[in-house]
Amino acid sequence: MRITGMIADERRGLADLTDTLTPEQLRAPSLCSAWTVKEVVGHLVAVVAAGNGAALKTLVRSGFNVHKANARLAATTAARPARELAAILRAHAENPFRPPIVGYPGALTDLQIHQQDIRRPLGLAGQLRPEPLRISLDFLVGGRAVGFTPRRRPAGLRFESTDLDWAWGDGPVVRGPAEAVMLALAGRRAALPDLDGPGVAMLDRRLP
C-alpha cells in the first residue's frame, strides 16, 4: 500500500475511534503535553481542514511561534462537536496535503503517535500495523523528524523492536515493542516501562 493510502486509513481509524468516545473520555488528558483527548483530535482535524488562511492568521496571532499556533488551532477546532470532527476526518481522509520538511512520513507518524496519545491514557487497545510502523520508526531516526525527535535523542543508542524486524543504531540497546519504541523516540515517557536494555536510562535522560 502507498503511504498516502496508509494516511487515509489512519484518518478513518481515528474518526471511528472518536465516534466511540464518551464526553468524559474526550475531556481526559492525553499523553500529548497539556492537550485533552479531544484537542488531540482537533489538532489532527486542523492539519487537513483548517485551510491555509486560518493557519496563517493563527500563526501571526501566536507571534510566529509554531507550537503556540498549533495549540490555539487545536483548541479552536476541538470546540466543534466530536461527531463533526469525525465526519471532517472521513471527508478529508484522502486529502493530499503534504507537510513541508517532514512530508508524508511525518503526516503518517503524527497520526500514529497521536492515536496512541489518545488510546494509552484511556486504556484502549489498538494494534498498529507493521508496515506503517516501520515507516514511522525509520522517519524518527532518519534525521529529518523536525518537531518530533531532536537528532541528539537517538544518537549513540541502538533501538531494537521485539515484534517487528527492525533495528537501528549502535551503542547501548533500547529494546521493546515497536509501538513503545516509536512513542519513546517521540518523547513520550509513558512508553519507557515497556522498554528494557542498558540504553533506557540514557534515553530517559534525553526525554523532556
What would your notes on this structure say?
The protein has about 210 residues and is mainly α. The chain has two domains: about 120 residues, no CATH class; about 80 residues, Nonspecific Lipid-transfer Protein, Chain A, CATH 3.30.1050. The chain is about 55% helix and about 5% strand. It is built from ten helices and three strands, in the order H-H-H-H-H-H-H-H-E-E-E-H-H. A three-stranded mixed beta sheet has the order 2-1-3. Strand 1 and strand 2 form a beta hairpin. Helix 1 runs parallel beside helix 7, helix 4 crosses helix 5 and helix 7 crosses helix 8. About 10% of the residues have low confidence.
Task: Please give a quick description of this structure.
Pfam families: MDMPI_N. With about 210 residues, the chain is mainly α.
Structural key phrases:
3 strands; MDMPI_metal-binding; 208 residues; metal ion binding; Nonspecific Lipid-transfer Protein, Chain A; 2 domains; 56% helix
What is the strand and helix layout of this fold?
Blueprint: H1 3-20, H2 23-27, H3 37-49, H4 52-61, H5 66-78, H6 82-91, H7 103-122, H8 130-141, E1 158-161, E2 167-168, E3 173-176, H9 178-185, H10 200-206
Parallel strand pairs: 1-3
Antiparallel strand pairs: 1-2
